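Lab meeting, item 3. Inverse folding demo.
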């Protein structure tokens, strides 16, 4: 069986959970099937990985239109582009590559499967980012979903969102396969020399490993709920640090909002550490291992790979009870779920934002000021990802979907 994976993100150009997913999935799938990866951001040197750039004619065009230019090249290449025969199946990830998968399926007469990492109807704030391109991305996603031979939802919550957003989709074609985690790559340093290196890393970043800390990792985008966390941080005890690994803002507007909130917070308390650059995995593991509790204040989160990464390093998670987060965080065992009532316009905005902020602060304080309980939950969190989210099991379930679609 040959499968072509189509994606915007692939190493070394990874900025979100979908890119992590594709990289890890491809590595495990290659053990049993023939896998080709087609991605954005230019040529690659890795075997069976082809990177594409925006056609010169579309340089400077709306980002969505430029994306379609790459999609056309990908769709064409899924055929016999290297003399080794065409793909048996094409598997696309996110709207950036969904149109490529849809067109490849039509052009070459093969099934198209897509993985749902997020949904355009539930991210209306992207109109701020793409302008009229949001209408294009929404059209491409809807077209691909309604025609796909199979859809992989990364959580049961995401499956519900798909069927609600796209009622024309046959429920029988939507399969739940969770995201996975590289257990070896995300583990708390254990050897003395590794712990010493980790300690040097966090101190070099301005973090005091001797203070309890709340850690956030994520892009600066509406769905991640960072402004709610910054408001909740005002209510944390003074000894608790806030460590933000946050960058790549979607728009200048949300960047300015976060800068303003951080500056205001720093006038009221110390221990606010903001790391804007993307950290390499060993550095990020060191930051997580130095923390007491991980915060996931998202208002929209299909699953949340960052939660799996934190749990694998042994941190309990305080996360919003929305989307796929309750399928990852075992409330009261591996962390705490913060209740939220949300408007139904697709933005995920809390109906009672002040209550959500207060509940978030209370849950974070409870764990950050009780290191023994936090450590117990952190150990349970590591066991949970070992038992339920190892990539080997995720890849097996993905291949089962492939075989089902291929008949």
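The presenter then showed the designed sequence:
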């Amino acid at each position: 069986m040959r499968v072509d994976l189509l994606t915007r993100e692939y190493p070394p150009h990874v900025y979100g959970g979908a890119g992590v997913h594709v990289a890890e999935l491809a590595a495990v799938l290659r053990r049993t099937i023939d896998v080709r990866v087609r991605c954005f951001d230019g040529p690659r040197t890795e075997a069976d990985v082809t990177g594409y750039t925006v056609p010169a004619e579309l340089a400077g065009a709306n980002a969505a239109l430029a994306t379609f230019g790459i999609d056309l090249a990908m769709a064409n290449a899924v055929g016999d582009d290297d003399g080794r025969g065409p793909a048996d199946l094409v598997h696309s990830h996110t709207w950036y590559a969904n149109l490529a998968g849809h067109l490849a399926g039509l052009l070459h007469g093969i099934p198209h499967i897509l993985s749902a990492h997020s949904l355009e109807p539930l991210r209306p704030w992207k109109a701020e980012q793409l302008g009229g391109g949001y209408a294009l991305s929404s059209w491409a996603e809807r077209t691909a979903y309604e025609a796909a031979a199979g859809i992989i939802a990364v959580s049961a919550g995401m499956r519900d969102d798909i069927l609600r957003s796209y009622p024309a989709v046959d429920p029988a074609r939507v399969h739940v396969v969770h995201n996975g985690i590289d257990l070896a790559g995300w583990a708390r340093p254990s050897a003395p020399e590794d712990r010493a290196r980790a300690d040097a890393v966090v101190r070099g970043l301005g973090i005091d490993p001797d203070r309890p800390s709340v850690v956030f990792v994520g892009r600066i985008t509406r769905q991640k709920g960072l402004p709610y966390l910054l408001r909740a941080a005002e209510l944390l005890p003074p000894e608790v640090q806030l460590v933000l690994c946050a960058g790549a803002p979607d728009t200048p507007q949300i960047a300015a909002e976060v800068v303003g909130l951080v500056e205001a917070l720093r006038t009221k308390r110390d221990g606010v550490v903001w790391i804007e650059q993307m950290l390499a995995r060993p550095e990020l593991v060191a930051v997580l291992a130095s923390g007491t509790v991980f915060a996931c204040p998202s208002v929209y989160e299909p699953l949340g790979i960052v939660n799996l990464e934190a749990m694998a390093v042994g941190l309990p998670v305080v996360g919003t009870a929305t989307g796929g987060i309750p399928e990852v965080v075992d409330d009261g065992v591996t962390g705490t779920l913060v209740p939220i009532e949300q408007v139904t316009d697709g933005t995920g905005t809390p109906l009672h934002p002040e209550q959500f902020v207060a509940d978030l602060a209370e849950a974070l304080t409870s764990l950050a000021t009780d290191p023994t309980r936090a450590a117990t939950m952190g150990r349970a969190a590591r066991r949970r990802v070992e038992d339920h989210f190892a990539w080997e099991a995720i890849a097996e379930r993905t291949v089962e979907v492939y075989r089902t679609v291929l008949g």
